[in-house]
Design brief:
heterodimer; A: 652 residues; alpha/beta; five-stranded parallel beta sheet; 28% helix; globular; B: 503 residues; five-stranded mixed beta sheet; four-stranded parallel beta sheet; 12 strands; 32% helix
Chain lengths: 652, 503
Amino acid sequence: MRIGVFVCHCGSNIGGTVDVPGVAEVARAYPDVVFSSDTMYACSEPGQAAIVDAIKEHALDGVVVASCTPRMHEPTFRRTVERAGLNRYMFEMANIREHVSWIGKDREANSNKAAELVRMAVEKLRLNAPLYPKSFDVTKRVLVIGGGVAGIQAALDCADGGIEVVLVERESTIGGKMAKLDKTFPTVDCSSCILGPKMVDVSQHPNIRLYAHAEVEKISGYVGNFKVDVRRKATYVDWELCTGCGLCMEKCPSKKSPDAFNEHVGVTTSINIPFPQAIPKKAIIDPTSCRQFVKGKCGVCAKVCPTGAIRYDMEDQVVTEDVGAIITATGYDLFDYTKYAEYGGGRYPDVITSLQYERLLSASGPTGGHVKRPSDGKEPKTVVFIQCVGSRDRSVDRPYCSGFCCMYTAKQAVLTKDHIPDSRSYVFYMDIRANGKMYEEFTRRAMEEYGVQYVRGRVSMIVPQGDTYLVRGVDTLLGEQVEVPADLVVLAVGAESSHGAPQLAEKLRISYDNYGFFMESHCKLRPVETNTAGVYLAGACQGPKDIPSSVGQGSAAAAKVLGLFSRGRLESDPQISQVDVRRCVGCGKCITTCPYGAIEWMELRGEMKARVIETVCQGCGICTVTCPQGAIQLQHFTDNQILAEVNALCLS
Amino acid sequence: MPVLKGKELRVVGFLCNWCSYGGADTAGVGRFSQPTDLRIIRVPCSGRVDPMFVVKALLGGADGVLVSGCHPRDCHYSQGNFYARRRLETLKTFLPALGIDPDRFQYTWVSASEGQRWKNVVSSFVEKVHQLGHAPRIEEAAPYLPLAEKGDTPRAPLRPPLRPLSYPAAGTLAASLEQLREKIRAALPELDCVIGWQQGFDALHATPLFMRKPEDVDKLTWGPLNVHNLATYLPQFKNRKVGVVVKGCDSRSVIELLQEKLVEPDNVRVFGMACEGVVDMTRVQKTLDAGNADGAMCADTAPSSVGVEGDNLSIEGEAPARLRLADVVAEKCRTCDTPVPLLGDVVEGNASAPAGPAPDAPPSPPSLDALDSMTPEQRRGFWRAQMDRCLRCYACRNACPMCVCRDHCIAESRDPHWTTQEGNIREKLQFQVIHALHLAGRCTECGECQRACPVNIPVLALKQWMNRSVRTLFDYRAGVDVNAVPPLLAFAVEEKNIKEHGL
């Protein structure tokens, strides 16, 4: 074999703490290495051209590049060697940046380690074999999980692109958090006026199949061919018949059901359509409060329903959908502010969350858009906003910034002035983070035009005083303690991952961070992809995001799916297991352990043997370890290839 | 390239591509400084990490091995790390049997987002390895043979057998045997052959008998000389109808073979009888040689007949001798709790009852006790000395009823090339470890490996150690239930007996 080694300086990223020419020199003595050189930026155009030239000039049949992580540039260099006529698997990478130069300053140790990593790569490459992908058909349908604004955008863009969309929403209506907002910053335009039409488009689009009040139960398969079980939870109303007339809501005698859509400000009826613009606009019964379920008799809604849609005996139903790609847009939840005992921990009725305040401001909310205190229904004249409740606070394990709270607080303060012209608003803040188009200008207007008092400092305690509250805090700019009497306190609660996000991540086989937000494939360059092929992210499930970013990601994810489906067939990764039928004794242990059912029995001259279904195998290698005689080998990670690396380290 | 003297030790890491390799990248991107000792091998999944890679590294001179995968429930391949957890924990409990400090091997979970955690894992593991220092090489250990005679199996003081070993009177035994022969004769027309025992080259040795005609059945013998586990022959008869005569212990091997579908239930007929124990031929020979038996006798003088009644073994011929069964019985019979075959057409005979109530856990066999009593250093010296004597004849493997790979054993293949043909201690021990690891959750402790060893290396002790690990970790005993799923081919999302290792 004729191997070429290219050791990259990566500017000073590697060259700074590794003797790059020295490593290239040492590598020249490794077995089968006929060419070795250092290069300033291996991934740059001249760097890649040098590799191509060397392959041709020195008749190389294998290449090692020692540079950054293969998770970054392995695909780049595989294409490079392919351009020079080599099979793309006749290439290995030694990670001497993330794993060497960036984590240690000892030049001697780093150089030695880099040389050893190159040695390991060379030894493995010597056993590499050309591999050839197979192609397979793609189911050109996409599953979108979550019907908030990001999911809606992704679904509409995919559907407009001509592919079928299955949209699954946990609640009985799509719209997500945005549907609960009154107005949006920085334009202060009506949230439901801009979201509403999109929701209607979803319901009317011929390419979109909407499952509301449903959850993803199980996902199997792989990119191009996922099988998804969707649990359609019982609504107790036949949605085929329900016209959304609302007669049942008018007549329902059980009027104390918790009103989740209105963030539990007020109550609603047990049979309910969450809000007038709901999509689908269908009624749903809450069996925890409905008299028919709780006491066993009532049946009023069944009597009044003009279409006879009520079904008290309805059960959950599981439907299976075949899709080729999945977009997750499961959004976020609000931080549980009751963890802050100093803000009353939920005991004070007039200390509310920002989203509850949003419902008080909304014309479709429980107060019809009149701001009233939950305790006595009076109009508040002094409103105090406290920012960073559950954001940037290590004491509650939320060290991250939720990003959009500064802006919606400014918006709410502005709206307060609009609703109650003789009111005063105070905002306690840590820093104002207004880094978006027209954002900084908007917070300026709140202060200068609307007279909102911004106090830089944290609030230490809220003390009830008669029917009002005393907000004690500090003004760090004045350097003194301040006390503000308040009729209403609004907590700008931060965002946290949607409940159930880790469980969904496990079903999707994608990673999530310590806080339950899903991991993107690369924080800068692959922001809507995940490490699981065919699964994409949109919106706040990946991290707190405002509406423009969520919409942008929804479109981006849709573009990725449309791109994926634009190819008629997909190429399968040839790094899959292969059975040596001469060695297989037919014990079936591999069949037992394969998580994908990718190995099946086959009869060969009267004997049972194992056989890998090439498009189903995902290349994990569990079977290779299971097989006692080593008859089933994961290509590109065979026993011998890994042993070569071990031996390069230990025996030499 | 050697490790940097005085600075580094040899630490090998196996990291899954999706989580831990990414975590190590994240740590690099965050410029979290780490010890330089670690060399990372990228694998797709922790489920791809064969415990034998770890052994290969440790025997090959690594001072520490670290495996890291995705957190449980978060595997990119959904189940790989669950399998890995069982395999690697089993390995961790096995390493001390070789005298390797289990702290030199660690496995853990780091996600792609946990750069800081990766730094902490590497730092604390490398620090621990540095505390342990250079790993002592087994081939450089001082030979340790605790036993008086070189070449003997390690013998802890003989424990009294769990059951009184007592063969029925000659007449009763003969009647039971005739009953067994009748059953075989009746079944023979439907079978290719029935495997049993017959007298061997002299009256003191039995040898396997392949009965094809009714008259062959007359040659069938029963008694303490029927040492062989005939289940070993069954996989060769795959796709043919065959019968096999078993003792209680042998029946467990048949169960195991049925469980692994290496023989088909429709094609196998099992015949058996209650067993009162078989002899350890080495002990018989030694006892006779030492002249300990009643009456002088030379072992070279072929005995004309051997009789057994109760606890007495009477050897007739030119040099008659009387031996007590309790003195020469095989090690496995002392702790046997399955004298009656667990399946098949069984002649009950007169199996003696256990001496007392059944113990909660099987008592530990003597050779395992001997290994337990050694220090790690002594164990290294012990295996060094034993492997020195190993001829690499593979008799242990060939006699093993569970070694079904036969011609495809990885000990002799180039692809995969797990062991070289070098006759050194490392390669020989590597093979013994392969045998033990491949038997994890499958070995019934029939002891054929050790019986077959021409130089009496106590290789069974490694399997006994492994079995104890499997029992402790998974509450599992091989060869009892045909329908059981062996522990290393299964997993539990929450493992009852596996604790997370803090790193």
